[in-house]
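Lecture notes, part 5. Sequence design as translation. It can be helpful to think of inverse folding as translation between two languages: the language of shapes and the language of residues. The source text, in structure tokens, appears below.
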């Protein structure tokens, strides 16, 4: 994609998404209320990440430079690679993870 927001949203269900190289700096947003969020990304991923869950775990396969740590609300903000693109992964009741590779 180039210039468009890549978004997946649901209320009752998990999200599993994967992408290769994404040109531009449009935001990537993956959100659900009841379910997990799992995103597969290429080794070259560069993003400013915002991961949050209320009842679940936060996990990433990528080295992350944290700008804020895990808090009582289970939110993590940081940078993968050189940063730049906003990448939001939120769930209320489920795990949130970023994995290397493809689905």
């Amino acid at each position: 994609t180039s210039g468009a927001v890549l978004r997946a949203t649901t209320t009752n269900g998990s999200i599993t998404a994967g992408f290769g190289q994404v040109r531009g700096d449009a935001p990537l947003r993956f959100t659900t209320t009841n379910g997990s969020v799992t995103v597969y990304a290429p080794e070259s991923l560069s993003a400013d990440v915002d991961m949050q869950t209320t009842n679940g775990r936060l996990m990433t396969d990528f080295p992350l430079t944290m700008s804020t740590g895990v808090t009582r609300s289970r939110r993590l903000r940081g940078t993968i690679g050189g940063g730049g693109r906003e990448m939001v992964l939120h769930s209320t009741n489920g795990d949130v993870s970023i994995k290397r590779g493809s689905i």
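The translated text above is only one of many valid answers, since several sequences can fold into similar shapes. The chain has no helices and ten strands.
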